[in-house]
Amino acid sequence: MSLGSFRIPKDIVFGEDALSYLSNLEGKKAILVTGGNSMKKFGFLEKAQEQLEKANMKVEIFDGVEANPSIETVKKGAKAMIDFEPDWIVAIGGGSAIDAAKVMWAFYEHPELKFEDIIEPGSLPKLRNKARLVAIPSTSGTASEITAFSVITDTENHIKYPLVSTEMIPDVAILDPALPGKMPKHITANTGMDVLAHAVEAYVSTAASPYTDALAVKATRLVLDNLVEAYNNGDNMEARINMHNASALAGMAFTNASLGLIHSLAHKIGGEFGVTHGLTNAILLPYIIQFNRKATNKVSELEKELGIDNLPEYIKELNKKLDIPLNFKDVKEVDINEEKFNEVLERMSKNAYEDPCTATNPRESNPKLVEMIFKSSFYGEDIKE
């Protein structure tokens, strides 16, 4: 076995009222990075600011990070940081806010950087020269608070770039279940399926280890036992806590084992059509598991661990319970019509094949095979080859 490593945030603070941990930070200035207005609406942004002020810090807010954070937004945030000079960056909200804050941090510390300089895995220079990063997720899904990943969208070319560097792993992850407790049903469903995709892909990854396998299996069990309950009864805090923990555990697994074709394809169809990332993963999951089963016995191993006969069919039934369509042609949140899909299919498949996540997929592929998977998931046709 080749030399391995396992990296997660230095501090992971979890449980009820975990947000109060912010008052323990030591520094002079903190900038809060957030998305829309949900964190403000539910009082979490104000509470975070209060806790930072208790730590005697001057606080500034950068808000408006969009659902698929763009290069333009990252540059604006970095400019705000350069002007304010914080020694703590505190990202609060969904994975988009945390992803954006990570790359803002890089451009704050290294203003000379260009986006194309950091696309290749491991190309990010050393951080923590000016500031450290706290991540506080409001969704139980992306696990960006745990990982070395950030996904940023090039809106001009309709491409999502997964950026990878251990430098971007937050210094502190704060897991407070009160935040995801306010998620609407469809976000609970989509982000929850994102957790499942992370866990499954980490388990079958060619870079998996006994450490990541154990975390991936536990995360998968927690999702299967709690997601439907969290979806149907959002006030069930036990289910919310379990899903929040599942997200972090899956994040620990995939940030160390990487991912696979589910995310490669999700990044590209998301970039082309703007489909929500978790929803995209939920639709792709069964088809890519079917595809990968031909090349690895770990799908069968996972089914045995979970006591499930057919994982792809189980996931399809789970999607139905969460009101998630089983194919892309039935997606309602954006318009993915057949003509437009076929128009971009070849380019989208080539870009997905070249995505960094493809490297650790257990079954080798090529642009034509990726195109076949896209077609299967668009029409809802099982993969048998």
UniProtKB/TrEMBL annotation:
PROSITE patterns: ADH_IRON_1, ADH_IRON_2. Residues 188-377 form the Fe-containing alcohol dehydrogenase-like C-terminal domain. GO terms for molecular function: alcohol dehydrogenase (NAD+) activity; metal ion binding. Residues 9-177 form the Alcohol dehydrogenase iron-type/glycerol dehydrogenase GldA domain. InterPro entries: ADH_Fe/GldA, ADH_Fe_C, ADH_Fe_CS, Alcohol_dehydrogenase_Fe, NADPH_BDH. Keywords: Oxidoreductase. It comes from the Bacteria. This is Aldehyde-alcohol dehydrogenase. It comes from Tissierella creatinophila DSM 6911.
